[in-house]
Amino acid sequence: MDFPSSANTNTFDSQFDRALDNLHINNKSDNSNSNSNTWQEDNLYQENFEIQSLSKRMSNNLDSHPLLNEGTTNYVPVDNNGYIAMNQSSSYSKLFNRILKFVQSRTNVRLTKYRSISDAEVDRVQDYSEREIHPDTTPIYDRNKYPSNEISNAKYNAFNFLPILLYEQFKFFFNLYFLLVALSQIIPALRIGYLSSYIVPLAFVLTVTMLKEAMDDIRRRKRDKEANNELYQVLAKSSQLVPSKDLKVGDLVKLKKGERIPADLVLLQSSEPSGEAFIKTDQLDGETDWKLRVASHLTQNLTEDDLMNKISITTSAPEKSIDSFLGKVTYKGATSNPLNVDNTLWANTVLASTGTCVGCVIYTGKDTRQAMNTTKPTVKTGLLELEINSISKILCISVFVLSIFIVICAGFKNNDWYIDIMRYLILFSTIIPVSLRVNLDLAKSVYAYQIEHDDTIKDTIVRTSTIPEDLGRIEYILTDKTGTLTQNDMQLKKLNLGSVSYTSETLDIVSNYIETLVESSKSTTNPTSRSAARKDVSARVKDLVVTLAICHNVTPTFEDDELTYQAASPDEIAIVKFTESVGLSLFKRDRNSITLLHEHSGVTLNYQILQVFPFNSDSKRMGIIIHDQQKDEYWFLQKGADTVMTKIVESTEWLEEETGNMAREGLRTLVIGRKKLSNKVYQQFRKDYDHASLAMVKRDEKMANTITKYLEHDLELLGLTGVEDKLQRNVKSSIELLRNAGIKIWMLTGDKVETARCVSISAKLINRGQYVHVITKVNKPEGALSQLEYLKINRNSCLLIDGESLAMYLKYFKTEFFNVTVNLPTVIACRCTPQQKADIALLIREMTQKRVCCIGDGGNDVSMIQCADVGVGIVGKEGKQASLAADFSITQFCYLTELLLWHGRNSYKRSAKLAQFVMHRGLIIAICQAVYSICSNFEPIALYKGWLMVGYATCYTMAPVFSLTLDRDIDESLTKIYPELYKDLTEGKSLSYKTFFTWVTLSLFQGTVIQLFSQTFTSIEPVDFEKMVSISFVCLVINELIMVALEIYTWHRAMVISEIVTFAFFILSIPFLGEYFDLKYMIRPSYWFILIFILLFSILPVWVMKSIYRRLHPPSYAKVQQFSLV
Questions:
Q1: pLDDT tens digit string along 31-73?
Q2: Would you say 536 is a known binding-site residue?
Q3: Which residues face 793 on adjacent strands?
Q4: How far apart are CA 594 and CA 572, in angstroms?
Q5: Which of 255, 398, 850, 1008 has the CA that lies 20 to 30 A from 330?
Q6: 831 belongs to an annotated ligand binding site
Q7: Alpha helices of 722-764 — where are they, by DSSP H?
Q8: Could you say which of 42, 251, 480, 642 is catalytic?
């Protein structure tokens, strides 16, 4: 290569620059201006980042391009910035760097645009880095690179259904034990009776489970099929309709109103001239308000051909956050515009606005935000199941001990004594209740049905059906405030300007001021912030109301000829409705302008929207830059929480005092400020802000720094707003009932201390005269423990603590803090972050080992709800996000009392009784077998065989025992009149070691009586074996039916039917059981006299003892029933 001479270098440089310009490669010349240098450094950093990323990805694939291979210096040395490292004094240094930069940029475009032509390694790493999408080539060349867009929520397929299901079932010890017992019957030495006696009960349990799982999976597949086969119009494919599952990254999809977004898209065009489109996101984030999305102005007016062939989209790697996105769109390889979350259409949202829009698919399948935020729900295990599990271990040990004991009693004369032990293990296997899990699972389904069909708590949804019993064991409730205890129905109640304030009774004065708004604006000019103190009250009120009318993210929409407001926060809607009530209405809004209607004069006030800074939970403020077209003025308007706005507005003496006063009134306060900008300052801000918004590295941080530098300081303080949030219906009575039930209530809120205290008093969380111990602004461990001393002495006090102090205690004195606070009736934590709420729930569970219920209504409550033993979500103004994440979804807080005190009681007591009856059913037949084996010289011979074993565990006893799931010990009304009854449930009295051993003793008595008398009235000789079985088995079945009847408190029609039908079926089946019974003996009158005698001896003593004990030690519910009847 011939290099130009030194004399012609400058000429060549300028010619080369022009050539690069014609190829749309930006040549950045040196500039002494600091801002230009900053921009240049940012772009060089970005280009270096992209070059290094590409070099790393292609280090093994680009040997033919040594200049692009980072770290390769065999040919030309490369410096840290990726440029040729030559002597900087050389006249050719600049030229070579420019050539290299040109080659890199073009190669980058070529290789990313046709990346599938490269080696497979580049494809494999692409998903973990930025992706460059070209609508004309990416869907073709890269069609196999990105995940398929097919939705699949199915757990099984035709090949893995049985293996997975069998593994899931046999990982439980009981099922595995019964499988081994059944398989042991293949071995002749261990065979006892018929193989069906052991296979059929286990097969029945597995069949029920498999049918349930299969039906659930079929429903999932049906839903997936419907979603996957939805048709969408894809541009450049002859406008043909393409199923959702066949969409590829880079496809341009045309959407209509009401259509579900099939994948993650970037909005390129809208049929609205402004490029706006509204989407519903309730199925993604649970929020019910519409979200505004805008197309990039670079692509809004392009033709279909230009969209296909002349644009490229660069996006960040797939991530979980639905509130953030980094990208840029480039037209003709030269002009770029930044892309953020406002330009996106996430999968599973719905297009709500009229007209059409065009979007480019950027993420599909498992890369979509919805898929990445969908986690497999953890299976919660109820406290009752843990208690049953511990009791079942005792049963398991009993089987082994009983088997070994009988063999020891028989002596070890037999050389095959170990085989005898195994045979006894098989004979006594009924002690281990294999059907218990199926019975409890079916019972949970019954409870869920009863909850969802309870007319007193309409629209309640059970999303987790495995823990209904835990509703009766709750000892701690952690609740949010806004939208949970309150309605989240906001009304602006107060304007405070420091020297004067206006309430709902004096708003007519504000209206009078607003009537003169247009006239005064024509005759006067707005003063700057320096002269704000000298303005009269009228002007200050007008400035505040105008700022409130402009500074928001509310959009007016017409649906069914009715005006509605759409916003992310009900606070903003309340403020807009307030400005409308005083005569200044929001008339029209799009992304570029906002129009207000002055109702008194009929004049419209037009403002150009230059920039919007949305509210988020981190910044706690919202701002907007507008151009007042009437006065040709630029203004930065901002509102936010006092904690952040205090540092932004000009210092004043009254701000802190007034925010405290308004908070004590129970009002949610916002600080309102503004700042006038010169055209020069605004243009400089816009330039730097645009530069920051194009950064692909630390974009948010750079944008925030730019806002702080130019805008967020020395704002004129206009005033405060106080918004009231009313309590939900029956909150006071509900909290009082729950506290009387012995439940400790913690309120965790992000609101201020004063506001939380006021709401707590009005909601009766704090009783009249109850001492409130306040801990605030404790950020150092020194002396922190002394703040808790009073609470150790007076445990009836209420603690009110702020988030800062709470964070300190959780960091340094976690154990000490919870040892004190878990005993308090009420704790109120303010200024809590979502993570703090979740941490508190986990720590209370860990420290107390008690059941914790968390209830909330917003997205910030999801973490807390998911960390609870029982999560309850309220469907409210903030949407369905908490409801979708919860175990139980309700519509009002007062429904919680019905859920806990009534359904929790029934679910726990019914399952406890059902579990013990199933154990009793297995124990009593095992006792009969043990008595027979002992009396027959310790021979391991089966007493009941074949169908007798199968029928006893299924159709002869199952329905009546399961009907106990419909029983109730008291009327529903008594749970509200005497909420103290709930304390018996939390103490676990219905299922404990005491009640378990009581049932074991009962089983031992009845089994011994039935078998001994059966043998006494016949004999154990082989000739009388069938007669003995005829007596003992029939007594066994009838005994169970009568015991069920004796345990029922309140008869239900289904209970009567199950008893009668089961008994009739058993009697009718006896003639077909001649293989096991002596049918001739059974028709003798003496047989029936023997039967009645044994049953009386088995049941009558039990009934008498139970009646005596109940009279001497009546349970709480029995006392209440007697008192209510008086």
A1: 333 343 433 444 443 444 343 433 433 333 333 333 233 333 3
A2: no
A3: none
A4: 15
A5: 255
A6: yes
A7: 731-740, 753-762
A8: 480
